[in-house]
Each structure stands twice: as structure tokens, then as C-alpha cells.
Amino acid sequence: MGRLTWWMFRARLAMEDPKSRAWDARHGVETAAETALGDAGVAGDAVARGNGVYRVTWGGLIGKALGALDIADPGLWTFVDYGSGKGKAMLMAADYPFARIVGVEFAPQLHAVAVRNCAAYRSPDQACRALEPVLGDVLDYEPPAGPLVVFMCNPFDEATLSAVFDRWRVRVAGGQTDLRVLYLNMREVAESRGVLDAQTWLKPVARARQFVVLAPV
Ligand SMILES: C[S@@+](CC[C@H](N)C(=O)[O-])C[C@H]1O[C@@H](n2cnc3c(N)ncnc32)[C@H](O)[C@@H]1O
Q: What average pLDDT does the segment 63-85 reach?
């Protein structure tokens, strides 16, 4: 990433921070504070595998990505956030009537905050109350059978990202074809072009600079 891109990203982070804090205050939760993974109970090379830091995903971006999902009846689908941090995407997804919402997070201290947030969340629009924060590595996580929306906001290194795509590819090849992948990056999804372009078994159903929605071809 160039210096200018990095500088613009830092400026945008500073602009978004008060919005994230206001969203937290409105909903009785805490998701906004940035946290180094090393300070959140993640050890050794897992810190680098997890891109080093927890940063809340901007609410406006999560809202746009969720709004681009092309599924008719969310009540038949499970939503899973791979790398769920303090649970912001889980909580925003809860305004849709998904069957279940799961968040998988390997930093124990972030998971503990997500558990508190899921219990404390207040929203007049909440339509799903089956919120399940799970402590663990996405590489060890087996998603439930049935229609599945997976969500990620640039959470891991390329090796981990390739591994999770591979699991979903096998699942779809085995006949579970109801899958949507929501992939977000607060700078641009093109940063993960290598891994995304290799998923020739998926096609975009919606695409913007900072998110893409993918479905099996
Ligand atoms: C961008 S942050 C989370 C954003 C979150 N989805 C949200 O809605 O605000 C990415 C998260 O992925 C987690 N993570 C990274 N690698 C992981 C792994 N292998 N297993 C589980 N969680 C992981 C990090 O600890 C971090 O909290």
C-alpha cells in the first residue's frame, strides 16, 4: 500500500471514529476502540496471521454490504462473521431476520466484549435474537449445514483466507450450494485480488470498491 493510500485511510479512520462511538452509545455497546491483537490475548505468529489489529468495521459499509445481499428469505439462512471482533457486523446483521447469527473470533478479550455486546444490544429494529459469539480460530470452525451467509472484513492473511474459501468450495461441491460470501475491505477489496480472483467457482452478484457479494456459479 502506498503512503498516500495509507495517509487517506488514517484520515478516514479518524472521521469514522466519532460515528462508530455514536452508534455504540445509541445501542448500549462498545465496539469502536481499536485494539492490538497482542493486547487481546492473541499470541505468537497468530497476531500476524490476523493482520495485527482489531478495527471495527464502519457501520455505513456493513449496511451497504448487507443491503446488497440477494436472498429472498433471511429466515432460512445462518449468518457467520469470520473474525467477528467485538461483534459489530453480528449486531447490525441482527436487524435482519436471519435464523442464527454466529461470530467466530480467536482473541479471547475481543470475544468477551462480543458476548457482553450481544447481551446488551438495544435496537428497535432487532429481528434476530439468536446471537452466538464463538471463541476459536476460523481454521477450526465448522459452519452449520444449510443456507449460509459468510461475512469477512479483511480479517486475515492470504493463507487463512485461501483456506476458508477452500472449505466453502468443498461444501458447495458436496451439494450445499446456498452460499453467499460478503467480503469487505475498508480500503479496497482489490487488496485481496489474488485470492478472490482464484475463486472461479464463485461469481459476483454485487460489487463495489469496498465490498463484494459472491455466489456459486
Ligand atoms: C477487522 S476485525 C473485525 C471486524 C468485525 N467483523 C466487525 O464487525 O467489526 C478482524 C478480526 O478478525 C479476527 N481474526 C483474525 N484472524 C482470525 C482467525 N484465524 N480466527 C478467528 N478470528 C480471527 C481478529 O482478531 C479481529 O478481531
A: 98
